[in-house]
Design goal:
about 260 residues; alpha/beta; D-Maltodextrin-Binding Protein, domain 2; 2 domains; five-stranded mixed beta sheet; about 40% helix
Length: about 260
């Protein structure tokens, strides 16, 4: 009888340990009362800092709706993009919500939700190159200098598909764009939603937007490996808002209406 009870206690302890191990980011956020999301707030119109110092944007509003559905508050944790995965893995926040493309390389380190939007890489080029540069293929020569933001798929794609061009990356998008505006670089490689805003906001009439995407890039939320309960919750949340009108309302606010530009510096 004692052996049976001992084995039973061991089994219960093991099950408890498994249950604790399975408690994921969403469960932790509910217990804490806050959903902590790591993001680099420089990616218009997904996450950016307005002139009042507030982090706003399309992805931010989706995350606010997610936090509300959980009955918790959203806490954004500003993190440099090239260190955002290590920060997640060392528990600086619960998940990544920073316009992150779901790539196979990243998927080896993280679990991802289903995509909440699909974008693609596009080009901002110097106006003087009109007619000379018609696609990314035309830039693939050592006579051109291209730029993007470090640690992003813009950098990855530039080095992979435009490898013959000289590359210089920056810690943020605005510096990279200004390199082209000031004639120090010939092209800026980045996601279409950012470029469509940047050509107006920072272009100063000196940039052309080649708006045909030349990559397929699903953006998704990143979590630690093995956190399937949280992935399940987030995916069901995304399905809900895409069918009840919430997603369309948020999308139109940031992509069809440019009033938010007045809030920026």
């Amino acid at each position: 009888m004692k052996k049976y009870l001992s084995r039973l206690l061991v089994g219960v302890t093991a099950l408890a340990a498994v249950a604790c191990a399975q408690a994921g980011a969403i469960d932790d956020a509910v217990k804490r009362g806050t959903l902590r999301v790591g993001m680099d707030p420089t990616y218009m119109p997904f996450q950016m800092t307005n002139k009042r110092g507030e982090i706003i944007g399309f992805e931010v509003d989706i995350l606010k709706a997610m936090a509300k559905s959980m009955g918790v508050k959203l806490q954004t944790v500003s993190t440099a993009y090239d260190g955002i995965i290590p920060a997640l893995l060392t528990d600086k926040f619960d998940m990544i919500g920073s316009g992150m493309t779901l790539t196979q390389e990243r998927n080896l380190r993280l679990n991802f939700s289903e995509p909440f939007i699909v974008v693609g890489q596009t080009l901002l080029i110097r106006k003087e190159l009109q007619g000379e540069i018609k696609s990314y293929k035309d830039l693939n020569s050592d006579k051109y200098r291209i730029t993007s933001k470090l640690g992003t798929t813009g950098e990855m794609i530039a080095k992979k598909l435009i490898s013959k061009a000289k590359y210089h990356g920056y810690d943020n998008e605005q510096e990279a764009v200004m390199d082209v505006v000031n004639g120090k670089a010939d092209a800026f490689v980045y996601d279409a939603p950012y470029n469509v805003v940047a050509v107006e906001k920072a272009g100063a009439g000196k940039l052309l937007f080649l708006d045909e995407p030349f990559t397929f890039e699903p953006l998704a939320f990143g979590l630690k490996k093995g956190d399937y309960d949280s992935i399940n919750f987030i995916n069901n949340f995304l399905h809900q808002i895409k069918h009840d009108g919430t997603y369309d309302r948020i999308h139109d606010k940031w992509f069809k209406n440019k009033d938010w530009l007045k809030e920026m510096e």
